[in-house]
Design brief:
5 helices, about 30% helix, four-stranded mixed beta sheet, 2 domains, about 30% strand, alpha/beta, 2,3-Dihydroxybiphenyl 1,2-Dioxygenase, domain 1
């Protein structure tokens, strides 16, 4: 059944490779049908993978092999809540070690240019704390990090 709404992600011929990585890496993810082009199209030939359906962290997506015209940007990202440092490390390292790159404040980019926020729940709870002093300390600690260090976030929260 085709979902009423899904996220369409544009790739340059690598939609299946990306979907396989995401569904292997993230919980609550799975690969769906792969659709091949019925005829030639601007960035491919008949029989090439045109789209791939997949779910990543519970979100239905469609990978479209649309060609080189459009690139991913930080204007769109997946934010994945993690429970602890081990899960944060596993997901962050999977993305970065698979040809991705680190960025600031818990953000990283995968090898296909898609941005991810690997966000421990401790960080979200800290920056939204009802006490403005606590929220400020946690926020300022986060601003010095690339991958989020849960122990440092918890220390900042305690003061």
């Amino acid at each position: 059944m085709i979902p009423k709404n899904l996220i369409c992600l544009w790739y340059d011929g690598t939609a299946l490779e990306a979907a396989e990585f995401y569904t292997r890496t993230f919980p609550d993810s799975h690969l769906g049908p792969v659709h091949r082009a019925p005829s030639d199209f601007p960035s491919g030939k008949a029989g090439d993978v045109l789209t791939v359906e997949f779910t990543v962290v519970g979100i239905p997506c469609l990978g479209l092999n649309g060609g080189p015209m459009f690139k991913h940007s930080e204007a769109f990202s997946f934010q994945v809540a993690t429970e602890d440092q081990a899960e944060t490390d596993r997901l962050w390292n999977a993305i970065v070690d698979n040809g991705g790159q680190e960025s600031d404040c818990g953000w990283c980019k995968d090898r296909w240019g898609l941005s991810w926020q690997i966000t421990p729940r401790a960080l979200t709870e800290g920056v939204t704390d009802a006490d403005p002093a606590v929220a400020r300390r946690v926020f300022e600690a986060m601003m010095t990090m690339r991958k989020i260090d849960v122990a440092r976030i918890q220390a900042a929260r305690r003061g």
